[in-house]
Amino acid sequence: MTSSSSTTATINAISRWLNYILAIPMIVLGILGATLTIFIFTRKSSFQRNPTIIYLLAGATMTAIHLPTVYIQSILVDGFGLGIFNTNDLACREHNYLLYVTTVIAISFPCWAAFDQYASTSRDASFRHRWSSIRVVRSAIIGTNLFWSIVYLPMLVYSGVENRTCILTNVTYRKFNDFLLTPLIYTIGPLTLITLFTRGILLNLNRTTVQSKRDHLTRQIRRMLIPQLIFLAMSGIPFGLQNIYFNLTSNVVKSSLHRAVEHLCIQIIRLFYHFNFVFTFYIYLYMSSEVRKLFRRMTTKFSTMDSSIQEGMVMETCKIEDSTYI
Q1: Residue 323: band (very low, low, confident or very high) from pLDDT cuts 50, 70, 90
Q2: pLDDT tens digits for range 24-67
Q3: CA distance 227 to 223
């Protein structure tokens, strides 16, 4: 085996082990975190009435859909060589459609949450009441789901398998997606919105004396949201630009070592971007005393229930033993 072949094999092995060691535990943590977020955010009445929390709850719900339906498929292909969507056109179309739709919807809701924080801290009372309300939240959630579901419908038509790889078969649409749609949605859009809204929130807080500035729950929500927005903006840059690189180099003849390095980079970028989905709950848990309080209450309740069940089983066992002796 040549030095180049040995290096290629090593890099490919690293790519596979990234899935075994990191990706699989991340999926477990992510699904657990999304489930706990949904459970906790629906257990407190003040959370249920807060527009920002409802946006974050919608994001957690979409994360709970994205991780098992999309990310697991990618791990099966890259980590175990089970080419589900790389061998079947229908599976390829389903994978590409869900990949883009669930990802974009999930990252849209933190942006909506940032907008709600901007609206709720505005000095203009009519603007606050108009845009920071439950009615607007419901309309935004439904509209966001419908809008992105329609925008990405061409994925169901233009996706297909070529050379055992799931790709966009229509060249024009592929260029449109790679050079315009993906960078705009994953990089330019979130980065711009997050920067504008965060700056607006800080300006509003410095200029206004509205009650929400002094409200404990509002401060807790803001502490949860801002780290999430910062990481979303940072991770979106490489994730949104990778397709441009691959489109520009699609006609370049690449060695097996070159392809192995590219594949490893894709794995790292994807892992980095999925931190948005996986560690959101744990950011909430670390940054918010309200979430920690509810989490402790929940775990205590489950521990008590478990103890009660065990005690009941012991009592039933004792009754059976007593009746046996009789």
Answers
A1: low
A2: 888 899 999 999 999 999 988 888 889 999 999 999 999 999 99
A3: 7
**Do residues 30 and 278 lie in contact, with contact meaning Cβ atoms separated by under 8 Å?**
yes
Q: Give the CA distances from residue 152 to residues 87, 95, 177, 279, 324, in Å, rounded to whole numbers and listed in that order.
A: 22, 12, 10, 27, 67
Nearest to 38 by CA among 114, 109, 111: 109
What are the tokens at 245? 């690189």
- The pTM is what? 0.85
Name, in order, each residue with C-beta under 8 angstroms of 112's C-beta and a sequence gap of 6 or more.
Answer: 55, 137, 140, 141, 144
pLDDT one-digit tens code per residue, 198-244 = 888 888 888 755 444 447 778 888 889 988 888 888 888 888 888 88
